[in-house]
């Protein structure tokens, strides 16, 4: 810390209790000055030789026959006045970053100018400020902090503005030119680590990160911090990443972690002002800089402290652009009354919808301006799809979550953002576990969100054994898994159907699927033997098909058995052949051309 010593005489000021200060001297004191609650017993001559205002006050007191001079509104209080008084006596005074502002304002109040005496206190302080304080990084911050106690004097004397300009100018310097000490307790950013890679050990120690200045200015009050950050941004040399890192560090420093503390009446006004200030200081370039995690945390605090709608809208738009970076934990925004759910589902739904709308607008901007930084590409959409599925799984544990809210949020993500439905299946299964009172219709509606064709092998195996799923969904899972298995031997015709079919079409769909599967199995099993041998082999093939799923639980086996039976019944009703031709799956092979002789024998047997 820089300092300046003034005067050479020993300090002769003495105290008598807390409210009396006097100078030990052979000469009796001849003037009493009240500064606040403290009385100073002093001598007129040294004071009047330096202060124009004291000359006026002493003259006025003599005319009024008053023994004391009162200074109620003295800037800096008794301590600042004592510094000025000691300077008048020529006693040793030490100026430093903590007292120089108060001394400057006191000297201005007392009019200790060059017109009164050459080399007066105002001149000395000005030299100290310009030569030492404003050249020092930490001293400039300390001085700026002390200006608040002597407002509006420090503002009118432009000390505040000069401190802010000094700080902002230093933050804009090339980090390689930083030679002073600074506080840095955070982890280095990725870019700084990369820049330091390959340096020698000694070079790494002295390398300065780009955001070296962030922590030191966190000690400022919010109003001064806002002015400093505005000045830093106005210089135009600081990128959005560093600005956001500064705002994040300040938020961590001053925003409480406890929700109860945020809601308390004591700090609510301060917290609200703090959040609104940070939001207005965010970089104008919304697509870069601040992480989505930080913005979402800021949004949660903004909701809790009740900031105005404009600040929340700004945050929502910024979050929408960076949604692909978020985690499930970031999206767990606590719900506020009158909401009954644990988390604010409507807020997340609003963010997702904004993301989808903005992604199109930004793609258009890319084509027009050639900018790639703000584009939400296909990879980002896939990340959002996965994120929402994981979020659905988390909120599905809430017993108060309505089916409509679950479905709305699920459908907010486009189909191409979900190439795999494993995450959605896990969310649906979790919802079914918690909400046991769902009706059959509601369970069907919930499961219609999922496409079993997009389940991986592991998810299909789990779904085939899941007794919470509707029968039709399990049947489809079994069918498509069997199709995959058969496809390894011979390519299959696409017989898949969407799980969104109506209830009236479901039986027809299942029957058609069974027909297709039986045809494929019969093609593999039929031999060109006699009719009796062919029938026996066909029956054996049917048994083998059933034995292939013996590892499944009893419920799944029963469903697969029903699938076979249902398919044969459907073939019975829809076929023009006699009952003898529909006794086994092998008879349901119209158009099989593996052997024309076996086909003709089959027809002849039917006629007989």
Uncertain runs are 189-205, 489-511, 520-532, 534-552, 562-608
Rounded average pLDDT: 78
Q: What is the highest CATH level, the class of the domain at 1-135?
A: Alpha Beta
By helix and strand content, what is the structural category? Answer: mainly alpha
Shape: elongated
Looking at the structure, the CATH topology of the domain at 1-135 is Potassium Channel Kv1.1, Chain A
Q: Kindly report how far apart the N and C termini lie.
A: 115 Å
Output the CATH homologous superfamily of the domain at 1-135: Potassium Channel Kv1.1, Chain A
From the alpha carbons, calculate the radius of gyration and give it in angstroms.
Answer: 41 Å
Q: Helix proportion of residues, in percent?
A: 55-70%
Provide the β-strand percentage band: under 5%
**How are the strands of the largest sheet arranged?**
2-3-5-4-6
Count of helices? 28
**Largest beta sheet, briefly?**
5 strands, mixed
What's the total number of strands?
7
Q: In CATH terms, what is the architecture of the domain at 1-135?
A: 2-Layer Sandwich
Organism: Gossypium schwendimanii
Pathway: Protein modification; protein ubiquitination
Keywords: Ubl conjugation pathway
Region (Disordered): 491-515, 564-608
């Amino acid at each position: 810390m820089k300092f300046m010593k003034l005067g050479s005489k020993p300090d002769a000021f003495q105290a008598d209790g807390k409210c009396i200060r006097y100078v030990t001297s052979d000469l009796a004191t001849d003037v009493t000055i009240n500064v606040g609650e403290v009385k100073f017993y002093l001598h007129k001559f040294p004071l009047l030789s330096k202060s124009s205002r004291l000359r006026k006050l002493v003259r006025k007191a003599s005319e009024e026959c008053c023994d004391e001079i009162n200074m109620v509104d003295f800037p800096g209080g008794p301590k600042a006045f004592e510094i000025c008084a000691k300077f008048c006596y020529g006693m040793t005074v030490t100026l430093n970053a903590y007292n120089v502002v108060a001394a400057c304002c006191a000297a201005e109040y007392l009019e200790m100018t060059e017109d009164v005496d050459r080399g007066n206190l105002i001149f000395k302080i000005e030299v100290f400020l310009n030569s030492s304080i404003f050249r020092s990084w930490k001293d400039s911050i300390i001085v700026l902090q002390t200006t608040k106690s002597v407002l509006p004097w420090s503002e009118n004397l432009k000390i505040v503005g000069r401190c802010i300009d000094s700080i902002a100018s230093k933050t804009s310097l090339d980090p390689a030119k930083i030679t002073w000490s600074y506080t840095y307790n955070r982890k280095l950013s990725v870019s700084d680590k990369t820049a330091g890679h390959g340096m020698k050990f000694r070079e790494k120690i002295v390398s300065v990160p780009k955001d070296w200045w962030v922590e030191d200015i966190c000690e400022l009050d919010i109003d001064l911090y806002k002015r400093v950050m505005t000045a830093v941004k106005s210089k135009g040399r600081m990128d959005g990443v560093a600005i956001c890192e500064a705002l994040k560090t300040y938020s961590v420093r001053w925003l409480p972690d406890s929700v109860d503390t945020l809601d308390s009446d004591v700090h609510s006004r301060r917290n609200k002002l703090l959040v609104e200030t940070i939001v207005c200081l965010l970089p104008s370039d919304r697509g870069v800089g601040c992480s989505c995690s930080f913005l979402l945390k800021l949004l949660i605090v903004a909701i809790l402290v009740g900031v105005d709608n404009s600040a929340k809208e700004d945050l929502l738009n910024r979050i929408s652009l960076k949604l692909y970076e978020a985690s499930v934990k970031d999206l767990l925004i606590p719900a506020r009354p009158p909401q009954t759910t644990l988390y604010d589902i409507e807020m997340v739904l609003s963010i997702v919808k904004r993301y989808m709308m903005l992604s199109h607008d930004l793609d258009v901007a890319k084509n027009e301006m050639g900018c790639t930084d703000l584009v939400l590409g296909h990879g980002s959409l896939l990340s959002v799809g996965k994120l929402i599925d994981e979020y659905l799984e988390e909120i599905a544990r809430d017993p108060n979550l309505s089916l409509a809210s679950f479905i709305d949020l699920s459908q907010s993500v486009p189909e191409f953002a979900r190439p795999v439905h494993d995450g959605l299946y896990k969310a649906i299964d979790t919802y079914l576990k918690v909400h046991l009172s769902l009706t059959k219709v509601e369970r069907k509606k919930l499961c219609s969100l999922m496409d079993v064709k997009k389940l991986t092998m592991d998810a299909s195996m789990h779904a085939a054994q899941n007794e919470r799923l509707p029968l039709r969904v399990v049947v489809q899972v079994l069918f498509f898994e069997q199709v995959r298995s058969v496809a390894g031997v011979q390519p299959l015709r696409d017989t898949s159907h969407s799980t969104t079919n109506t209830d009236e079409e479901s039986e027809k769909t299942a029957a058609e699927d069974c027909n297709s599967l039986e045809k494929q199995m019969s093609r593999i099993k039929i031999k060109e033997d006699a009719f009796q041998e062919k029938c026996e082999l066909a029956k054996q093939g049917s048994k083998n098909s059933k034995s292939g799923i013996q590892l499944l639980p009893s419920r799944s086996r029963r469903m697969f058995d029903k699938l076979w039976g249902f398919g044969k019944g459907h073939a019975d009703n829809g076929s023009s052949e006699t009952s003898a031709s529909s006794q086994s799956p092998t008879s349901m092979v119209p158009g099989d051309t593996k052997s024309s002789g076996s086909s003709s024998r089959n027809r002849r047997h039917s006629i007989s």
